[in-house]
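Thread title: Can someone regenerate the structure for this chain?

I was given the following input by a collaborator and told the matching structure tokens would be attached. They weren't. Posting the sequence so someone can regenerate them.
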Amino acid sequence: VVAMRGSFQTLNAGPGSEDEAVTTHGLAMWDTAFSRWTYTPYVKGTPSLLFSDLWQSRANNVALVAGPLSAVAALNAEGTLLLDAKQNIQPLGMLGSSLRPDDGGKMAVNTGLWYAKKNGTTPQLIVGGQFKTPDGSTNLAKLKDGKWKRLLDGVGGEVLTINNAANLLFIGGVANVTESSSGQGDSNFGGLVMYNMDSHSSVGIQQLKGPDGGHSTVRINKVAIRADTSMVVVGGNFSTAGGMLSCPYICTLDINENQWSPMASSTLVDQVTDMLFSGSTLYVAGTFKNGTAAPVYLMQYSFASSSWESIPGAATLPGPITSLTPGISEAGVGAFYMSGTAASGGAPYLAKYDGSSVTLAEYTIGSSSTVRSILEVPRSRIPGSVIGSSSSSLNRRAGS
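Best answer:
Regenerated them for you:
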């Protein structure tokens, strides 16, 4: 099952169906086995984050649903909630004080990470976005003793991605920089921070610069970790690293040497929006354009051959990709999902890569809707009362 969040309120029946439209509240679940919409728990308020806890493949895995929520079922959940394997809902607000809107009144939780120092230790939940913690920190928080607390100060821009390599935490997002007359960034958040979770201190990184040559336009959308190496891949809106190294929109960082390196030349013409690894292959979402050919919105990079390669079926994607979500074992080896918006008309779409080719999902959703992220929920962990029978009464299409 794939869970989707966004600005939509109705799940409409498909053409020729006698089903009635079902009202929803920004959270929908698509059953990939039967190609139909399934019922979801009541969530009032549009979620800004769906995050699955698959750490160590624990049997009691949960999904994190976060955002400016005012109610979940009959519970009050101001910001975040946990949805466990039995479809039980527990607001994290019940465990302590909630996250709060920032000084501008904005509240968004964009990303989350279960961090554990080593296998067998209790993981710690860390979230990033645009908010304030009860103790005054901004845009980054950890859950400790049932309360949201500061992790580090100085993250003045909206956080879009969090990842870790061993004890190093990478926080990426929208730069909040005041340019000085010398052209150097004079603020505390240049779009990317590397933080040592053992020493509780930031690690210096050579700064990135935006396509316009300044620091203020840097935006880091994704930090991907290449397993069993010291390599971190950073993608977003930037053109150079360390002031001189040209690496437009995507670059690698060796965490042992603290050194940036470019990848093979690509046809990227705009920012990287998302990335994910499958083995040694990196899948990159962005706008790739070669001369007068039509743009392609998904490519793969082989580190074995240091080359960019096309993906079968990717040319059928109608527009830029918003997010990539890895599939679980039920989806097939190397499978992942993607959501995006059509270049013509702006309607959202959903597609799947099954390990060999890309296929668009056959559903309809209104052009005024917005899908921000997706999450696959294992069917084996969803009660039959939620999935229901295979009757046509649950075969629904999404609308605006």
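DSSP finds one helix and 36 strands in the chain.
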